[in-house]
Amino acid sequence: MGARKRISAEKRKEALKTMYFAKLQNVPTSPRKMRLVADMIRGMEVNRALGVLKFSSKEASARVEKLLRSAIANWEQKNDRKAEDGELFVTKIFVDCGTTLKRMRPAPQGRGYRIRKRSNHVTLFVDTKNTNDNQN
Question: 37 near 60, Cβ under 8 Å?
Fold first, then answer.
């Protein structure tokens, strides 16, 4: 590894130490369906977001709820204190495409239709509101 690449990698690692996030990888749901759930909670206070996810009828909301709980736990562990009501917010959440499994389904007249079983990766960041104000 070159010197510049090593320096930039170290800077990236140091920046991640001050961020509070959780990742969920290789979720067997299409990214489009997962983005609908991610859009519901973007920018929300975490307790309100947990309520929205708990009562959502989407299948992906259960996975995002578990991910949000993990991100809150990461914040509590790094700060050595419990999260209070109205303190934490979902600052960023994004969904990226994962691997796509290609399958074949029998079709009429000896043909085969291609099926794409998509997956995705979800990354969720939480932080306090006053920290966000200082950065802007």
Answer: yes
Segment 93-110 shows an average pLDDT of 96
Amino acid at 14: E
Give CA–CA dist 123/120, Å, rounded. 10
Task: For residues 79 and 76, give the distance between their C-alpha atoms in angstroms, rounded to a whole number.
Answer: 5
Helix (H), strand (E) at residue 56: none
Helix 31-41, helix 60-79: angle, nearest 10: 50
Indicate the SS3 state at residue 55. Answer: coil
* Dihedral angle, C-alpha 72, 51, 131, 125, nearest 10 °: 50
| Per-residue pLDDT tens digits for 37-81 | 999 999 999 999 999 999 999 999 999 999 999 999 999 999 888
Domain spans of the chain?
Answer: 20-135
Q: Are 112 and 105 in contact (CB under 8 A)?
A: yes
Is residue 84 predicted with pLDDT exceeding 90?
no
The overall average pLDDT reported for the chain is 93
pTM: predicted TM-score of the whole model, two decimal places: 0.86
CATH level 3 topology of 20-135? Ribosomal Protein L22; Chain A (3.90.470)
